[in-house]
Structures are given as structure tokens and as C-alpha cells.
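[step 3/7] fold_predict: job queued, chain A
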Amino acid sequence: MTRQQQLIAAYEKGHYTVQTPALRFTLLIAQHSGPLARLHEQLDVSFSFYITAYNPHSELFDEADNQARQQDLVADVEALGLTYYPARAVDPQGEWPVEESILVCGGSLLEAQGLGQRYGQNAVVYNLGAVPLLLFPFWKNQESFLQIA
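[step 4/7] structure written:
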């Protein structure tokens, strides 16, 4: 298995936990999320994305660098005027460290891709409707960066 295949497999198995003021829930790739559907309905959005600035290109950075990058990401999302909630990406096998993240509600696929590129992320979780899928910001053509579940 290539490194790219290993990374994609790890992203697909990740647990993407979100904390709203009223509820904590976990997103799993390609599995419908009732809590996410209700959150979308409550906020009157049909799209959200889950992103981190931690560990660009899946290379481990120290915690201080990761936290600074994450603060910059949050500032960028705030500048876009989008609602977001704190989140954490967890590898259930424990091979990758926990990554502080955010769930961004609203916005567009292009904004998700752009922020993913800006922060060096190999993958961003996007939620069209309430089904989390993977977006690969650095892949060159639309057919290859959108995962078809």
C-alpha cells in the first residue's frame, strides 16, 4: 500500500467529533449523521466542512506550531463570517495524535478547498446534506478530489 493509500485509509477511519453548545456528536466518513442534519436545519445551511490546520501534509508538527496554525484558521473562518464549532479528529487506532479542528457551517466547497490548500491539508471532510465525505484539496481535477461514496 502506498503512503497516499495509507493516509486515505486513515482519514476514512477517523472519528470527527464536534461540540456544539447543546450537543456533542461524531462524524464518520460516508455515514449519514442525524445530529449534523439537525444542525444544518437549525442553521438553515445545506453544506458544512470539517477542517484542521494541524500537521500539514500529514507531517507531525509540535503542539505550539499546530495551535498557532489553528488560531490562524479560526481567524480566517471568522473573517468569512461563517459559523463554526470546536471539534477534534481522533484516530480510533491511536496511530495519529488527536487534532484540534473545527466544523464550519455554510460556505462552499471552494472555500473548503481553498482553506485546505492554505493550511496544507491533504484532506478536508465536507458534508453535503449530512453525509461526510473526503475532499482532497491538492488533487488537480474535480473527478479526483471529490470522493464518490
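[step 5/7] annotate
Residues 141-149 have pLDDT under 50 and may be disordered.
Strands lie at 15-19, 24-27, 47-51, 83-90, 99-105, 124-128, 131-135.
exit 0
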